[in-house]
What does this fold into?
Amino acid sequence: MGALDVVIRLVYLAVATCFVLGLHLMNSPVTARRGNLLSAGAMAVAVVATVAVLVETGTVRPWGWAALAAGAGLGAGLGLLLARRVMMTAMPQLVSLFNAVGGGAAALIGVHDFAVHSGGRDGSLPVVLDVLIGAVTFSGSLVAAGKLQGLVPGRPLVFPGVRLLTPALALIMVAAAVLVLVAGGGAVALAVLGAASLAFGVLMVLPIGGADMPVVISLLNAFTGTAVAMAGFALGNAVLITAGALVGASGAILTKLMADAMNRSLAGIVAGGFGTGDELSPGPAG
Amino acid sequence: MSVQLLADLSVFVLSLLLGFEVIGRVPTTLHTPLMSAANSVHGIVLAGALLIALSAEGVFGYALVFVTAAFAAMNVVGGYVVTDRMLEMFRPRPGRTSGGER
It folds into this structure.
């Protein structure tokens, strides 16, 4: 282990610590803003440290640097613009949009790892879970954002056959995952897994009413955290695992707290459509 | 099971347990900002997006790096800025006691 490697690992440890403290400071309105700034500062340090790793390793090709710089610049600019411009009332759907792209990024890391490290033949369990969860959260969060923005009807959308289609998609996802893992299904099986997961995410959120969307976004947020942790396993990167697991677990607890605050059961919300009270009100608020 | 995988698994499980405990006392008014803050934290996926550039080659590889970096950067920057804007609303105004009418 080189000297820089030791330093980088210690920096990552400090970053993970700051993420934990940052989230903990969110427990009180007095310290919440400080917590967010601490977390943001740690994130900046993590990015700088990772760039140092890239420079030190020196295997990034010129086009790789260009793709990174252009992508990061575009994403950062767009994120900043949207976050600054959005009205206070439209913030939940924006959070959902940011959650969607986070999940999408995690899924794409899985795709890259599959293409490069396993030669496109068979993948590891973390890679498969990364692609699966990331794709579900990407499409699911986009639909959730669309519902809040009014681009997708906010009422629970239940069409004939959806109760059969969703379990069928789940079966396809499991079958494709098994093919990728043990049967050498290759890139085709991974593509099927990704496509089925995207469709599953859409079908999971469509039958849920607009009023329940904040809870659903929080649930998908926890999913993204888990996907990021899986990406961390694939890349062998501890800070991704720590931060991802932290968000996965705290997001799950927060989802439960939010559902409780609305006097709703989480299972009832996810089941959607029937018996949730949504069908009683013609236009759900949200 | 390799040593690396075992170490990663330990970190994963302990981080999960920490995550379950860390936000236990959050008041209802902070639910949405906390969701947004947690959303920004998983923006650490940007570090992963940077790392895949190490082994990226070919048009497909570079395109993947570009899209991943764009997605992740949007998650990070947008997430923190929007969380900060939400939390700004909780800041007590100068000259007034906190908890008073805004």
Remarks:
- The longest helix of chain A spans residues 91-117.
- Chain A is about 75% helix and 0% strand.
